[in-house]
Batch of 3 targets.
Target 1
Amino acid sequence: MRAKLLVIISAAALTIAGCSSSEPTASPTKAAPPATTAAGLSAGQQAYLAALSAIDPGLVANEERALSRAKDICADIAGGEFIGAKLNERVAERLSGGDAQITAEQAAKVVALAKANVC
């Protein structure tokens, strides 16, 4: 019953949306994929890694791990549980250790970079 109702509503929406118009509707176009480099990185990913290296070269000692952690930052942002100083502290903890140690202030820069280039 529910499926039948959805089909009826969808058909009505299409009719209202312009199927009765005499003008042809444009077919949907695919968005162009982001430009990638020879290494398979997008321009945003490259920019992120370059800026991350400027903060601390140890942060990009393993580029794959750096990009994976950027995706984790994006997930934290999207989740909404961590915001402001709490997010910066989480990022500082996540990225510190091994090859790099960063402060919450540096983590705030990393968050901004991730938002602008990866998320």
Target 2
Amino acid sequence: MFVAVVPPPDVVEDLSDFLEPRRDVGMPWIHPAQWHATLAFMEGVSDRALDTVLENLAAAAARRRPFSLHLGGAGAFPDAVRAKVVWLGLRDGDRVSAARELDRLAVNVRAAVSSGGAAVDGKTFRPHVSLARLKRPVEATRWLRILDTYVGRTWQVDEFELVASHLAEGPNRRPRHETVARFRLGESGLPPGLDLPGPA
């Protein structure tokens, strides 16, 4: 399971159009339907912990207010010379999103999940949307230069999602992502109509 900010359809479409001429060039691009900015990743959430995690996430959402972001600024993990993941960063105005609001939201979300009894991956939060995952490290400097020319549409971040990931259950054995709940920023209370999965 993971908690994420998901770009809206027009933002996804704009980036997808930018990548379209570059799709058949050997880079294993992630399907646009799976683009998201992870706030917290949990290897598993027990049935016992799930209700508390949901309540805590609702409380975390209520403490934050909507804010604006856009995609821009390319990077790679662990670095450009040995890239295994190629990504675009998230910017707020002209500042890379060490974007204070997104950072604060991630801190609140991670605390909410941890205090709910689920273990959060301890990696440092780095705001980004992964665009490609590689089986073997590659030299990606050329790709980062190309991606650096992209500046995405600005959108209002007014919610985040709790998502269950089902490995190899999607088309072409991609993970299948199932939204469990959406949490509106600045709104209190649990979201209606939760579709709770089994442990993930």
Target 3
Amino acid sequence: MEKYRALVLFGAPGSGKGTQGKFLSKVTNHLHISSGEILRDLPRDSELGKLFHGYMDKGELGPDDMM
């Protein structure tokens, strides 16, 4: 049975999660996934893009149930 290892970084906006995540992914040869980057890359004219960009443009967090 193959084991999977994961590291999840939590912190307030601007606390360095992305910076540390990118660094750790290079050092440990892991995949780095950023939910913020994924959401920012959503097309503004798509249904999900309209929803999440609406929250982000106001500086708000998206709803947990949608994440």
